[in-house]
Design a protein that fits this description.
This protein has 79 residues and is mostly helical. It has helices at residues 2-20, 25-43, 47-64. It is globular. 0% of the residues are buried.
Length: 79
């Protein structure tokens, strides 16, 4: 019986803290993207994995909002 009385307040406290510490989806996306940005930068021309990384990016964007899309364009170098 004592274990139940001790565990219940701990569970309630942990649920309360998780409500206040919830990371917004936008922040989750940018955290994810910052971990994977080098892959997108370095492997964008690699046709073998391009579809996979684009699918991953699309999936992560949809977690923020279902209507989000992305676009990549070729950069121009200024000399």
């Amino acid at each position: 019986m004592k274990r139940i009385l001790i565990v219940i307040p701990i569970i309630i406290l942990s649920m309360g803290f998780s409500l206040f510490n919830k990371t917004p989806n936008e922040d989750k996306f940018w955290n994810w993207f910052s971990k994977h940005q080098e892959t997108y930068y370095n492997e964008i021309e690699n046709l073998e994995i391009r579809e996979k990384i684009f699918n991953n990016l699309s999936t992560e964007l949809k977690k923020v909002h279902q209507d989000l899309v992305f676009e990549f364009s070729q950069s121009t170098k200024v000399v």
